[in-house]
Design goal:
Length: 122
Amino acid sequence: MSEPSRDLLETFENPNPDRDYVIETICPEFTSVCPKTGQPDFGTLTIAYIPDEVCFELKSLKMYLQQYRNHGAFYESVTNKILDDLVAVTQPRSMEIRAEFTPRGGLRTNVIVSYPDENWDE
C-alpha cells in the first residue's frame, strides 16, 4: 500500500483574508485500515480552520481522504498525518482535526490534533 500523498490537495484564494473566520468541514464517511487486524476503521473527521491566504478545495480533499481507504495506519498516525498535510498545503492561521472513530470491541476512540503547537516544525 502506498503512502497517501498531499499532492492531490488543491487550494483557492481566501475571499476574505483580512478577517478571521472558521471553516468547518465534516467528513462522515472516512475509512482507513487497522494495520494490526487488517479490518476497516470507520470514522467522522471534523476539520475546523481559520484560513490565511488560501482555503482547501473540497473535491480535492475528498480525493485525498479516499487514499486512506486501503492504507494501514493507527488512528493517531492517520489523524496527525492529515493535519500535517493540510497545514503544509494551506498554511492556516489555525487548524483542528477531530477524528471520531466508530466503536470496535466496545471501545470508542477520538483523536484531536491542532495547529499551531510548539512541536510544529514544517
